[in-house]
Amino acid sequence: MSIRAKGQLVTERVVEMMERVGLDPRYLKRYPHAFSGGQRQRIGIARALATNPEFIVCDEPVSALDVSVRGQILNLLVELQNQLGVSYLFISHDLSVVRHIAHRIAVMYVGKVVEVTETGELYQDPKHPYVEALMSANPVADPRRKVERIILSGEIPNPANPPPGCSFHPRCSYAQELCRQQVPALEEISPGHRVACHFASELDLRGAVR
Amino acid sequence: MTDRTFKPQPEPDGDVILEVEDLKVHFDLDDGLLKAVDGISITVRRGRTLGLVGESGCGKSVTSEALLRIVPRPGRVSGKILLHRRDGGQVDLAKLDPTGREIKDIRDGEIAKIFQEPMKAFSPVHTIGNQIIKGILLHVTRDKNEARDIAAEMLTRADVPNAAERLSAYSHELSGGLRQRAMIAMALSCHPSLLIADEPTTALDVTVQAQVLQLIKDLQGQFDMAVIFITHDLGVIAEMADEVAVMYLGRIVERADVDTIFYQAHHPYTKALLASVVDVGREARSKLATIEGTVPIPLNLGKGCGFYSRCPIAKDGICNREDPPAVEVGEEHYVRCFKYVYPDEWGQP
Ligand SMILES: Nc1ncnc2c1ncn2[C@@H]1O[C@H](COP(=O)(O)OP(=O)(O)OP(=O)(O)O)[C@@H](O)[C@H]1O
Ligand code: SF4
Ligand SMILES: [Mg+2]
Predict the structure, then answer these.
(1) Exposed/middle/buried for A70, CB within 10 Å: 0-12, 13-18, 19+?
(2) Mean pLDDT in residue range B223-233
(3) How many CB atoms are located within 10 Å of the residue B205 CB?
(4) Helix (H, G, I), strand (E, B) or coil at B78
(5) What is the per-residue pLDDT across A85-140, written as a single tens digit (0 to 9) for each?
(6) What band does A155 get if pLDDT is binned at 50, 70 and 90?
(7) DSSP letter string over chain A?
């Protein structure tokens, strides 16, 4: 194939990708700084898709975006997954966003996974005290929903120098002597639901949705 | 125009701390006139929180800079910023010399500000204690020992552990959450009557955010302060605000009490914002409502509604000709949209 024919193919593929992520292909010759935040995010997604990957890592893909544009990108990611069957590792600190997009969620605290399960189960029936606190701290856009917040005391520890035992014990209201001494293992408490807490199966914790 | 157009605001009662009327901040730039803030009016009352919400670039931070008269060059501030002072007097901050004594006296004394990035509030070369004490010596007392005691007490109130020792710490030695609390302690050490909080928790982890929000509420109660809380997060607004002003492109497009904003929003932009919230109450992976396009830059804007280019119900010949006036659609509920000026045009007589 001649170089020109190859170039032609590449251009066709790029145009296809741009259309797929909802960008006007007339923008093909523009530089990234001339795009808005949402448009740049779409370019990033188009570039990630261009090689037909099976798996894409999305690291905080919407955290810098305004709400009105964030919806566009989340819709696009869901749509592309439904069409192309790609898998995502979606990294985010926004509990509402991960619930929207993820099928399965792993919650990390100070460098370790503390709980991993299906999305619905995590929000209804969290088993790790840190996850319970996260759910309760997540602000909800509804002034009539006055929930009683769990306000954790203390700071997130420095991962270079984590506390002994369970890293969460200095902030955990359920901590016992055992938690100060032994690191809890990530154990399966029901099929597909794993938790790293000594008292995971004894505690009765509150979820975000009833 | 019908008789439903702009009505003057009700007489301010004794509780009012700040009345802002037709505030504008314009920047004369090489490539034209940038109207960062273009005629906003707000009232803030003692013990109450006004939430200022809007997307990136809508003018929230410039508004807060204008209230403190710290807008950088070549920004021009006009309009009225009436502060009801502690001694019972009133002063129009918009008329003050931004480098003069009076505004310096008010800044950090009667109006304090906390920032998104606490690094901005502290100097890296002085201890936290010295910086807090300096403000107290300027505004509260001349006695150095007393000032030190007040500083330690404020840190304690802001839940900073080992407060007396922390006075000799430098800001970079503290964790993000602690630094945020030290900044709040500093801002409140002179018992301001108005606190401006510009995205104070946006950079924090949710559990730390919950701590800081609770702290602001507690201290507001203790000091009976008015608060202007700036954020783009509707969840945080629902939690913190008593009244809400929704900003778009330098204007307040809708203003009402928090319940009305969330349950009876009138402006197409407010409605669209609320519809696009990703919330735990919504069905996962369902299609989210979106607003087409992005927020324009307020440079060389023509006449007409700022939301015209993205509004799903815009009408040619009405919305793009004049600026929509503020219409009172309910008690203390104002909307800037022609649909409420000419309801018949939208088929709603
Ligand atoms: N010093 C300045 N000179 C010129 N333009 C400015 C200046 N400061 C802000 N602007 C412009 O004024 C507009 C409003 O900016 P502002 O910082 O108030 O936005 P914001 O609502 O605080 O946004 P964000 O949520 O991103 O903080 C923007 O278009 C911005 O580019
Ligand atoms: S004035 Fe017109 S363009 Fe502006 S919000 Fe109302 S309907 Fe939409
Ligand atoms: Mg800002």
Answers:
(1) buried
(2) 93
(3) 17
(4) strand
(5) 999 999 998 888 999 999 999 999 999 999 999 999 999 999 999 999 999 888 88
(6) confident
(7) --HHHHHHHHHHHHHHHHHHTT--GGGGGS-GGGS-HHHHHHHHHHHHHTT--SEEEEESTTTTS-HHHHHHHHHHHHHHHHHH--EEEEE-S-HHHHHHH-SEEEEEETTEEEEEEEHHHHHHS--SHHHHHHHHHS--S-TT--PPP----S-PPPTTSPPSSSTTGGG-TT--HHHHH-PPP-EEEETTEEE--TTTTT-----S--
Residues 212-241 of B with CB under 8 A from A: 213-214, 232-239, 241
Contact at 8 Å (CB) between B40 and B63? yes
The span from the CA of A89 to the CA of A95, in Å, is 15
Per domain, the residue ranges of chain A are 1-102, 103-210
Tokens of A194: 């794993």
- Mutation target to probe the A interface, by most A beta carbons within 10 A, among B173, B207, B233, B253 is B207
pLDDT confidence of residue B6? 40
Nearest CA in chain A to B178: A155
Ligand 1, atom 26, lies closest to the CA of B56
> Does the beta carbon of A77 lie under 8 angstroms from any beta carbon of chain B?
no
Tell me whether A97 touches chain B (CB under 8 Å): yes
Angle CA B30–B31–B32, to nearest 5: 95
* Element holding B330 (H helix, E strand): strand B326-330
| A123 and chain B in contact, CB less than 8 A | yes
As a whole number of angstroms, the distance between CA B44 and CA B52 comes to 11
CB contact under 8 A, B294 and A36: yes
What residues does each domain of chain B span?
262-280+287-346
Per-residue pLDDT averaged across B120-139, rounded? 89
Angle between helices A37-49 and A67-84 (to 10 degrees): 10
Give A1-102's CATH code, choosing from 3.40.1190.10, 2.60.120.280, 3.10.20.880, 3.40.50.300: 3.40.50.300
Size of interface A-B (CB pairs under 8 A): 139
The string of pLDDT tens digits covering residues A31-44 is 776 676 777 888 88
Contact list, A70 vs chain B (CB under 8 Å):
276, 278
Closest-CA residue of A relative to B177 is A155
B121 neighbors B115 (Cβ within 8 angstroms): yes
User: How far B237 CA lies from chain A's nearest CA (Å)?
Assistant: 7
Name the pTM for this structure.
0.88
In the beta sheet, which residues pair with residue B228? Answer: B50, B196
Query: What's the B270 CA to ligand 2 centre distance in angstroms?
Result: 11
C-beta of B59 in contact with ligand 1 (< 6 A): yes
Calpha distance B262→A141 (Å, rounded): 8
Residue B59, SS3 per DSSP: coil
Nearest to A129 by CA among A50, A72, A197: A197
